[in-house]
């Protein structure tokens, strides 16, 4: 459903203007009703409400006794914030989530299939480059891995 990388700017109130292509999808899929939450890499995830319902149902099944499972639940469920795209296609990112993801003015919005990731632009470039270098150092074979996926 979502793909592509978009370099964007947060406005002074912490609002993100969703690109027109994505805005149309979000309007059609969920009438602009969204859920933002934190992610492990100190970025944010943006879900439609339907996709969030699927993800949160899985998270809720995690143990509340096991330490790591509680941490994961606190991260994803505890930080989850319902939000709505306004009439001009902007999404207000709550201050707590902006702080968590260390979002400055320049951000990157990237499609991840069923959700979107929101990154501080400098952090995105750093973590993306580090990930590519790690794959290269480990001898990751893009050809055979992609062939296995049949794409």
Radius of gyration: 16 Å
The portion of residues assigned to helices is 40-55%
Structural class: alpha+beta
Strand content bin: 15-25%
Q: Shape, please? A: globular
Tell how many strands the DSSP assignment holds. Answer: 8
* The number of domains: 1
CATH architecture term: 3-Layer(aba) Sandwich
Low-confidence stretches: none
The number of helices is 6
Strand count, sense and barrel status of the largest sheet are:
6 strands, antiparallel
CATH overall fold name: Chemotaxis protein chec
CATH superfamily annotation: Transcriptional regulator MraZ domain
- Biggest sheet strand order reads 1-7-8-4-3-5
CATH class: Alpha Beta
Order of helices and strands: EEHEEHHEEHEEHH
What is the mean pLDDT? 91
Q: What is the distance, rounded to the nearest whole angstrom, between the alpha carbons of the first and last residues?
A: 15 Å
């Amino acid at each position: 459903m979502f793909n592509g990388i978009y370099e964007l700017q947060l406005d002074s109130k912490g609002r993100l203007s969703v690109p027109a292509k994505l805005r149309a999808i979000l309007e059609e899929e969920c009438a602009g009703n969204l859920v933002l939450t934190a992610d492990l890499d100190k970025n944010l995830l943006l879900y439609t409400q339907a996709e969030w319902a699927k993800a949160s149902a899985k998270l809720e099944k995690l143990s509340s006794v096991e330490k790591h499972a509680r941490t994961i639940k606190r991260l994803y469920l505890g930080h989850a914030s319902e939000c709505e795209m306004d009439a001009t296609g902007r999404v207000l990112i709550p201050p707590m989530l902006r702080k968590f993801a260390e979002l400055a003015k320049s951000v990157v919005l990237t499609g991840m299939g069923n959700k979107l990731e929101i990154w501080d632009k400098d952090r995105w470039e750093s973590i993306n480059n580090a990930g590519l270098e790690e794959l290269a150092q480990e001898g990751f074979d893009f050809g055979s891995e992609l062939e296995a996926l049949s794409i």
